[in-house]
């Protein structure tokens, strides 16, 4: 230790020692920082960063060594051999790169410390190669014990340095790592310097063309400055790139990629801040405005998703340009937006805000040569009038929006207690619906389908009914939408199909049976298999089963629907288009899909003989069916006048209250000649004589 201290205090120029120390600390700091970030660098860039740290670290060791060597004054002429001097730089860079590469393989093993030991050995190797480049008029002898000590100190402190950088345990760990690396370099160097002993010999001459102290110091400082500059620039550049990437990632995380508007995540943060403010300031008020576009799906279906995207982008730009201080707008998905209005005193200000947004939405939109337009349904819930927590406010705003969507007059609705009560009833109904199937509360009724000319029964349609234990008979219009929204319609649909097939198979007369299929059922991967199983288990002939599909099922997923229909036709099943005329792509659907029957919606049959528009639509549909050789069935026939019109226009089949209301299982079994019903006379329609008068043609004789 005394030799080391004496070497530093007596044989060196203090200013150059200070310069060497400064270079060592700066280089160590940059090396450790680059190394510490290796674990966060992607694998494809890690090798380059290891080399960058190796260059900086190697140059730091080399520069520190030779600046300290220039600071060393042996009292005689001396110089430096160029090739060994350059070789020592290569050794420093290669060795440090190898050590850092080993240490960066994982931070869960001893590879980190092994890499640190390699770092220390590199310092020693570079030092002693550099010392062999040291030329003096004499001979250098070595103290092997001090050499071993210098190597050991370099390895220990190198291991500590990389350990602290790779496994930081506190905010000061990187500082400890920098100090340990500087210690490894300095302790190794000065211990190694104290290990030499110079024996002067005037017969030994310093070879010519050697590097003088002045030349060496200029060269060393220039090389180190270049390496530090390049290393620092690369390090800062990568940090800037990562910062920009992080900002871009954060922006993408909080913004909608199509429109650039804030997304649901940023909306949640914004609302959280408003709620926090409201909890500390009782005067804070804000309103949530939920916006759902109307007719947007038609744009997507008729003009393609590119037109739909352009429409969303234009509307988003308009909404963003319409808000001011205290206002916020976000796209929450699909064609849904949520706007926030805060810092208002009267609800009329919120209403004016919603009107302003609506006015911008409904303006015509030009997409290329297309002149498009959409509407909007808007619901509003305000804090604290309509709720004091976010979940309640968002839910109430949604309810108000759906009320606006269902309304024929109002496009903007504020939440009210009536909506809340209706929503509670729907939730209760949904909960009861979950157990209705297992509890046996469902049953099927059957409505007959009749030939227009002979009035004979030609088939039946199975209709689902729900006998609620408390509410009584729940109308399908009340529970079918809930079943579709909750997904329960899939299991209910399987039950309807299996039950209808089993019932029809038990009839003595082989009437066809029609079953409605919802869009949710049609997209099930197992749907065709479910139909095949129902036929197999019931024994019903496939030709007697007719599945009714609405245009909504086709429009939502045409490719899948066409494939499903093809497979169903291969089974021998008939397929009917239900509610024809209520969509906007009926002609295209008839052209593309293999339908066996068209059912005209009841809305066109009501008083058709007195309504020129309805009459024209029905006549056109009948002519279309005749041209395509597809039979037509008219739904909702309730009077003789309606039947007479359809007979005159050559409609083939009808269905409606004129021939009877939907029948129970027992009634349909009597009519179809089920084995349990023998020699019975059934008056079809007698179950409710208030709907239609009894006609002689309505009597059906059923014999054994």
What's the SSE blueprint?
Elements lengths: L1 H9 L3 H23 L6 H29 L7 E2 L1 H22 L7 H22 L1 E2 L2 E5 L1 H23 L6 H22 L1 E5 L12 H42 L9 H17 L5 E9 L1 H8 L1 H18 L4 E7 L2 E7 L4 H15 L3 E3 L2 E3 L2 E9 L6 H17 L5 E3 L2 H23 L2 E10 L5 E12 L3 E3 L1 H11 L2 H17 L7 E5 L1 H4 L4 H12 L6 E6 H6 L1 H14 L2 E7 L5 H7 L4 E4 L1 H4 L6 H17 L3 E4 L4 H9 L4 E3 L9 H8 L8 E3 L15 E3 L3
Describe the structure.
The protein is α/β, with parallel strands linked by helices and 704 residues long. It folds into three domains: 2-245, no CATH class; 264-415, Reverse transcriptase/Diguanylate cyclase domain (Alpha-Beta Plaits, 2-Layer Sandwich), CATH 3.30.70; 426-701, TIM Barrel (Alpha-Beta Barrel), CATH 3.20.20.450. 57% of the residues lie in helices and 16% in strands. An eight-stranded mixed beta barrel has the order 12-13-15-16-17-18-19-20, surrounded by four helices. Helix 5 packs across helix 6 and helix 14 (417-439) crosses helix 15.
């Amino acid at each position: 230790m005394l030799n080391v201290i004496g070497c530093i205090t007596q044989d060196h120029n203090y200013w150059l020692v200070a310069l060497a120390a400064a270079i060592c600390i700066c280089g160590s700091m940059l090396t450790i920082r680059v190394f510490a970030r290796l674990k966060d660098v992607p694998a494809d860039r890690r090798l380059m960063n290891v080399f960058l740290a190796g260059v900086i670290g190697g140059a730091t060791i080399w520069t520190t060594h030779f600046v300290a060597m220039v600071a060393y004054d042996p009292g005689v002429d001396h110089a430096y051999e160029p090739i060994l001097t350059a070789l020592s730089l290569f050794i420093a860079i290669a060795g440090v790169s190898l050590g850092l590469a080993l240490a960066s393989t994982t931070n869960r093993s001893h590879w980190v410390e092994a890499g640190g030991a390699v770092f220390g050995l590199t310092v020693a190797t570079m030092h002693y190669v550099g010392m062999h480049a040291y030329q003096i008029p004499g001979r250098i002898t070595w103290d092997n014990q001090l050499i071993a000590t210098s190597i050991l100190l370099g390895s220990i402190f190198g291991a500590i340095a990389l350990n602290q950088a790779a496994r930081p345990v506190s905010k000061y760990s990187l500082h400890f790592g920098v100090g340990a690396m500087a210690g490894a370099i300095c302790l190794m160097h000065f211990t190694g310097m104290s290990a030499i002993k110079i024996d002067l010999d005037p017969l030994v001459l310093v070879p010519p063309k050697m590097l003088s102290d002045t030349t060496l110091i200029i060269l060393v400082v220039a090389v180190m400055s270049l390496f530090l500059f390049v290393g620092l620039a690369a390090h800062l550049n990568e940090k800037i790139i990562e910062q920009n990437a992080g900002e871009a990632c954060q922006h993408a995380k909080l913004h909608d990629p199509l429109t650039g508007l804030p997304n649901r995540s940023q909306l949640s943060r914004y609302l959280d801040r408003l709620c926090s403010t409201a909890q500390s300031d009782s005067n804070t008020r804000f309103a949530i405005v939920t916006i759902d576009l109307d007719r947007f799906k038609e744009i997507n279906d008729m003009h393609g998703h590119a037109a739909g995207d352009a429409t969303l982008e234009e509307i988003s730009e308009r909404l963003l340009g319409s808000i001011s201080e205290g206002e916020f707008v976000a796209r929450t998905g699909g064609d849904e937006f949520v706007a926030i209005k805060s810092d208002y005193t009267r609800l009329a200000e919120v209403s004016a805000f919603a009107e302003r947004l609506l006015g911008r939405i409904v303006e015509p939109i030009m997409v290329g040569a297309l002149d498009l337009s959409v509407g909007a349904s808007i619901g509003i819930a305000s804090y604290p009038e309509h709720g004091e927590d976010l979940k309640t406010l968002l839910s109430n705003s949604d309810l108000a929006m759906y009320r606006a969507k269902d309304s024929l007059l109002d496009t903007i609705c504020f939440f009210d207690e009536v909506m809340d009560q209706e929503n509670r009833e729907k939730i209760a109904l949904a909960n009861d619906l979950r157990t209705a199937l297992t509890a046996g509360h469902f049953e099927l009724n059957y409505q007959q389908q009749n030939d227009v000319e002979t009035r004979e029964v030609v088939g039946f349609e199975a209709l689902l009914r729900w006998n609620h234990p408390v509410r009584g008979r729940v109308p399908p219009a009340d529970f079918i939408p809930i079943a579709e929204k909750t997904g329960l319609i899939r299991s209910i649909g399987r039950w309807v199909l299996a039950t209808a097939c089993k019932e029809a198979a038990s009839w003595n007369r082989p009437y066809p049976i029609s079953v409605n299929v919802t869009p949710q059922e049609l997209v099930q991967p197992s749907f065709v298999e479910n139909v095949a199983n129902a036929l197999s288990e019931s024994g019903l002939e496939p030709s007697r089963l007719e599945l009714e599909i609405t245009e909504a099922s086709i429009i939502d997923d045409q490719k899948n629907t066409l494939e499903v229909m093809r497979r169903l036709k291969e089974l021998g099943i008939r397929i009917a288009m239900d509610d024809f005329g209520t969509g906007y792509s009926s002609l295209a659907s008839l052209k593309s899909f293999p339908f066996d029957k068209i059912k005209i919606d009841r809305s066109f049959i009501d008083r058709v003989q007195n309504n020129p528009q309805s009459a024209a639509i029905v006549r056109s549909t009948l002519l279309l069916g005749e041209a395509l050789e597809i039979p037509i069935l008219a739904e909702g026939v309730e009077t003789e006048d309606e039947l007479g019109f359809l007979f005159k226009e050559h409609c083939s089949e009808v269905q409606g209250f004129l021939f009877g209301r939907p029948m129970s299982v027992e009634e349909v079994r009597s009519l179809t000649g089920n084995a349990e019903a023998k020699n019975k006379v059934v008056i079809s329609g007698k179950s409710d004589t208030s709907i239609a008068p009894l006609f002689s043609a309505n009597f059906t004789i059923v014999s054994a």
